[in-house]
Design a protein that fits this description.
The chain has 3 helices and no strands.
Length: 83
């Protein structure tokens, strides 16, 4: 929905509903800002982890190999628990 269409719909709402609409819009803006803040924080943590891995000499292949090993261990443990 475009901004113009939203404004047009709000203009048709009774004035008694403006407070509720204002609260809802404030909540939507809050959620948007919180989501973006979380995304920025996650990106910063990832960048920090990549820098640490580079300094420690850990390669992308090392990470893939470790993940593959962890998944295999998890499958083995799951299969053993089913027996």
């Amino acid at each position: 929905m475009s901004y113009e269409a939203l404004v047009e719909q709000i203009r048709t709402v009774p004035e008694s509903c403006f407070n509720e609409i204002s609260n809802y819009i404030s909540y939507v803006v809050y959620r948007y800002e919180k989501q973006n803040s979380a995304a920025e924080h996650f990106a910063a943590v990832c960048a920090e982890a990549q820098a640490w891995a580079k300094d420690a000499g850990i390669t992308e292949q090392d990470i893939q190999d470790n993940l593959r090993e962890l998944r295999a261990e998890k499958r083995r443990a799951h299969n053993e628990s089913r027996d």
